[in-house]
TrEMBL record:
Residues 45-296 form the G-protein coupled receptors family 1 profile domain. Keywords: G-protein coupled receptor, Membrane, Olfaction, Receptor, Sensory transduction, Transducer, Transmembrane, Transmembrane helix. This is Olfactory receptor 56A3-like. The chain crosses the membrane at residues 31-52, 64-90, 96-113, 205-229, 241-264, 276-298. PROSITE patterns: G_PROTEIN_RECEP_F1_2 (PS50262). SUPFAM superfamilies: Family A G protein-coupled receptor-like. Putative odorant or sperm cell receptor. GO terms for cellular component: plasma membrane. It comes from Ursus maritimus. InterPro entries: GPCR_Rhodpsn (IPR000276), GPCR_Rhodpsn_7TM (IPR017452), Olfact_rcpt (IPR000725), OR51/52/56-like (IPR050402). One of its GO terms (molecular function) is olfactory receptor activity. It is found in: Membrane.
Amino acid sequence: MLPYNSSSLSTEVSDFILNCFVRSPSWQHWLSLPLSLLFLLAMGANATLLITIRLEVSLHEPMYYLLSLLSLLDMVLCLTVIPKVLAIFWFDLRSISFSACFLQMFIMNNFLPMESCTFLAMAYDRYVAICKPLYYPSIITDQFVAKAILFILARNTFLTAPIPILSAWLHYCGKNIIENCICANLSVSKLSCDNIALNRIYQLIVAWTLLGSDLILIFLSYTFILRAVLRLKAKGAAAKALSTCGSHFILILFFSTILLVFVFTHIAKKKVSPDIPILLNVLHHVIPAALNPIVYGVRTQEIKVGIRKLLRRVGESSN
């Protein structure tokens, strides 16, 4: 096992050591079981949702295509982060290669804003469905979804790709101990012998530009939705309209609440244990992923019907 405390190395760094919860070693014992269960739940639930949407013809609609994209992003983020964390917990495999570290950094920095942008597209879908129902079939089409997905991929890849590139270009000639469970940009770049001011500024600008603008536009969408719902006079119309976007709103709360808590604890890091922001960062990659498909499965009748049909098919094929 590689040592946790490295002095100055005479050669270029070829790998890093993830110092995951070394200040709180007992956390690894009680976190490993719930984290592994959450990971299995996230992978299983999202895979079930994707298969259900793929096989059920009635779910071949724009809203469910966007939900499929969200499930794919959740699965990739989980696979990028959680298996490595569990390998550290169970087998003390703290070493990660230089290339694997920056690949993980790229996926995390790219896919989290993609999730945020997907939520924005879903909010627009609900806005058109409730505020402009007569125009919904002509606005929210398969072509709209294709263009939205291309925009999500292009916007986030173009703006976030420089983060791992700038970090990889730095000169790592000394410490190789990352005080984190994951290859977060600032946790890695601060090990460099170079000035990292550009890395810090660029990440801050991109994070607030992408996530901040998405959250503001989502908030505006729901403001318009709420205003339109309150104008509905037909009996039960308001409750029905709100229920159609309730699941989506709950998913946004899962995503944004953990993110905001992480930001605030990072700001107040002098008042909390340094391991708390690290824990929240890890959980942010698995809790929304585990809960998103469950919320949609429980609250959306069409998906519940599709899952029942899928389970029936599996049961029939096994007999």
